[in-house]
Amino acid sequence: MEDKNRVIIFDTTLRDGEQSPGASMNVNEKVRLAGRLEKLGVDVIEAGFPAASQGDFDAVAAVAQRCRKTGVAGLCRTSKADIDQAWGAISKAVKPRIHTFIATSDIHMEYKLKMSRDQVIAATIEAVRYARTLCGDVEFSAEDGSRSDRDFLCKVFSAAIGAGATTLNLPDTVGYAVPEEFSQLVAYVIAHTENIHKAVLSIHCHNDLGLATANTLAALNAGARQAEVTINGIGERAGNTSLEEVVMALHTRPNFFDLYTSIVTEQIVPASRLVTMITGMAVQPNKAIVGANAFAHEAGIHQDGVLKNPMTYEIMKPEVVGLSRNRMVLGKHSGRHALRSRLEEMGYLISDDEINTLFASFKDLADRKKHVVDEDLEALVAEAILRTPETFALEYLHVSAGNTVYPSATVKLRVHDKLVQGAEFGNGPIDATFNAISKLTGSKAELARFMVSALTGGTDAQGEVTVRLKENGLQAVGKGADPDIITASAKAFINGLNRLEYLKANPLHSSHTDIYD
Ligand code: KIV
Ligand code: ZN
Known about the structure:
Blueprint: E1 8-11, H1 27-40, E2 44-48, H2 54-66, E3 71-76, H3 80-90, E4 95-103, H4 106-113, H5 117-134, E5 138-143, H6 150-163, E6 167-172, H7 179-192, E7 200-205, H8 212-221, E8 226-229, H9 243-252, H10 254-257, H11 268-279, H12 300-308, H13 336-345, H14 352-368, H15 374-385, E9 392-400, E10 408-415, E11 418-425, H16 429-441, E12 446-454, E13 463-471, E14 474-482, H17 485-505
Parallel strand pairs: 1-2, 1-8, 2-3, 3-4, 4-5, 5-6, 6-7, 7-8
Antiparallel strand pairs: 9-10, 10-11, 12-13, 13-14
3-methyl-2-oxobutanoic acid (KIV) binds near residues 101, 141, 143 and 206.
């Protein structure tokens, strides 16, 4: 029998999280992240929306085959064709789940679906009934549930349970709810949905008013037992409820909530880092739990207190979320074994082939930088392991810049295994470098965002550059790190161009809005 105090963690980083602008992931990245989510102990991974494109179908199918413990869900609208696609992608999973949804708010039904209430109920019953002929585990979501008429919502949920739904999800699709009202809505649904005991009640919140975590916790307190979340809170617009915030609130305040999850909390920071690395979406430094400053104490009085007893100013131990207090520093005398064990402590699962590639880049970096710390290692992992197939590669870069010269860059690239070389001017060395690369690759990509930061302190720190590139409706993030920031910029730009090439060849989504049609 299910424990009434256990909260099911349904992770939608690979689906709703991926709907963040520019956060598209390729098949390999989704599979790698799914492995990490399985290690983190999530109960269900929503891997994507298989009907959106062949690329998304393939990614969901690959995740379904990869996960040997965790449930894998595929999202679909209520049409038979969508449900068939979802089932086709997840059927090889050990625990497959079909997740079908339709909007139930008046505004969505009238303007978007152009369907009456009766038609929405009929579509719900037909979809859930059909999905149950394929799969024993069927989740039904009432999109825009928090803005739906309460009694109609309960009617739809009752119909979905009658048709065989095993989970009912109540989304705050537009992030409009406030905690007290949302918990009242959950209580109302529990009281007025027929046979509610036959299904798990789930919530799915968006963060438009910064209330996603608060709404999720309020709903769990009112009786919901599945939380839909993403790592780092990534997702549509202002994002989804962040997994780490909900899990650590339940973990840190057991007397208040008396609820628990199966999450291995020590895996939270490694999972957060991998999401940042793959999506290029940096976590704000003051972000709860996983931000760089979440456990940093600046004020003297706080530092004094923490040294005397950490619990004076720390409500959670950093080790519990996977941050180690003792950071090992590697250098040019460190061997392959030390590198591998540090990476494993940081939570990376590294194969023998990968360690060979990484060790070569590590030695190269250690020759140029005395101390190689965790942030440097992360950048190496990102470059060496998460690399997209390379259409373009940097062979040589020379820039001339200063306050008395007109900046220029000479670049040699490998383009489809052919060497090409050229030079360009620009209004600065980075502009000149990007101009030269664009000319050599023939790329028309527009630079939508450019961010540079130092990976660590010190003047010998590596510069890390993130770019967001746009071309014909496609967006890609590129990253590069190097002690020389112009080289880091060139690497990031080329990485972004490679990702665009990959997206052109393997489109994940024809558009981001199509799944809500
Ligand atoms: O926000 C939302 O309503 C969704 C549904 C598809 C569950 O993401
Ligand atoms: Zn959503």
